[in-house]
Amino acid sequence: MKTxxxxxxxxxxxxxxxxxxxxxxxxxxxxxxxxxxxxxxxxPAGALSPSLIVPIARKFPNVAFGPTHDPKITPxxxxxxxxxxxxxxxxxxxxxxxxxxxxHHQTSAxxxxxxxxxxxxxxxAYGAGAYPNTTYATQPAAGPSPPPGKLLPGNAYxxxxxxxxxxxxxxxxxxxxxxLCSNDTLLEYEQTKDKGCPVGFYVVIS
Length: 206
What we know:
This protein is mainly β and 206 residues long. The strands form three sheets. A five-stranded antiparallel beta sheet has the order 3-5-11-8-9, with no helix packed on it. Residues 2-34 have low confidence and may be disordered. Helices cover 0% and strands 34% of the residues.
């Protein structure tokens, strides 16, 4: 599985096969026509999806775009915040944060990808997260942010794997959150695991 540094753990990043500059895919393919998912690009039962996805924009710092299922990242402007809720039952367990990015033959979910694929995940403080009305100017408190890495179609990426951070006796979920941004690439996609190979951010608990 390709890897991309995230939060406080840096894993080895490998280059993926070059792709065309622009991929624009509509949800027109039948799921029966999907080819095999990228290596490690399937999800086990119980994988966690984002609880909230909120775009923000540097050029519109006070505009709240509200929740969406379609993240939007544009060069030096739009980022998208992802909240993931780690359940209290994950005490003493390992959480693996993944970004799954099948190519257009492997999913019928739509996406648009244009650029060299350089991204950065701006992490927020542990336990902090976005709200539906979060704007660029009201982002959560900053946390550890890794160096940039590549995200390219046709790959599955492990972003971080380690302790879920849930404390013994804890009874409420813990929010893990960050914003995906890029200086050189447009990415818009449908976050889904129901249209062939899953697309987007997920947490696997083991």
